[in-house]
Amino acid sequence: MLLNTTFELSECIVPPPDNYLLVYNGAPIPPIERVGIFSPNQFEDFINEWATACLKDRYIWVRKIGGSNDKGRDIIAEIAEGQYDYYQCKHYEKPITPSDIWVEFGKLCYYTYNKDYPVPQHYYIVAPKDVGPSLLDYINNPLNINDALIKNWDKYCKTGIKTNDPIDLSDGLIQYIKNFYFKIVSVYPMQTIIDEHQTTPYFPFRFGGGLTKKRPVKQNPPQEIDTQELTYVSKIIAAYSDYKKKIIDNVEDLQQNYPEFILDFNRHRERFYSAESLRIFVRDTLPDESSFIKLKHEVYDGIIDIVERDYPDGKTRLMNVMAQASLLSIQDNILAVNSYMSICDKQGLCHHLANEKSEVRWAK
Known about the structure:
The chain contains 16 helices and five strands. It is elongated and about 95 Å long. It folds into two domains: 31-207, 3-Layer(aba) Sandwich (Restriction Endonuclease); 227-356, no CATH class. It has helices at residues 21-25, 31-34, 40-54, 98-113, 133-140, 143-151, 153-157, 171-179, 190-197, 203-207, 230-244, 251-257, 262-285, 290-307, 314-327, 343-356, and strands at 61-64, 75-80, 83-89, 122-126, 185-187.
């Protein structure tokens, strides 16, 4: 007997997503879930980034220690001379329990007892799924930690602090643990860390989503020539001199005696400052200026053959280089997205290069 297997096609085909990018990239992973798939080392880097960028008003410096000899301090942050906060990173798939942390409390007591490092102002536990209810009870009632740590010492700390060097509880260490001020221990919620990290230049590189910050309106040139302009401006004036076959001494001479060049000269300054505003945007938006430096190298590679061609004069060479720069296709650079980079920027980078490189000049 045959069963009736007739059914609508729409019942077995998943409707296409509205966003075609999902076909290539898959559904986005929320940051709170993405943190969970970091490696332990990536997680420590993430916490180091967050503390460095978001807590800079609190700390003089932040340093990742990590590794097998961190003595219970994955991240150290200096508040003032001799005053520190410590961050203990636990990248586990579940909320942290007391059994996960006894050895870390043991390290904290043992190494401060021996004066390997000072007792911190705060000792923060950070974990993708924060802490479970049992550990939270201890943290909310820190006087219970002292006796519980002594009770659990042999099981978790005796051979856990130094693998090949068992540490027994001496009378002095017992008394030290009993008097230890565990109120310094707290949990820094992971969602709070993510929310704060989202304001930093590191966030899109950790969690994706692209660059969302808008580039400010480009900077207009100041009326007076700035010291950072002296080299490229002198090369432009040399190009005009080469064209006129007359010596133009300086900007004042240009303005007073060669008005036909003023509009062109002002455009070149606008281009320089457009590129400069891009540099400042990169500095304030991204972790470093490497993308801007890479862009400058790409512009150099794109124009240097044009610079080295023979032309009747420097002004003609300059015009040809500007035309070539405007046509350069820059793709393998994060600045090529979101319209961060303009034709004016690429032309302005030619003047940045003229500032830096002797071979980028217009009058030969």
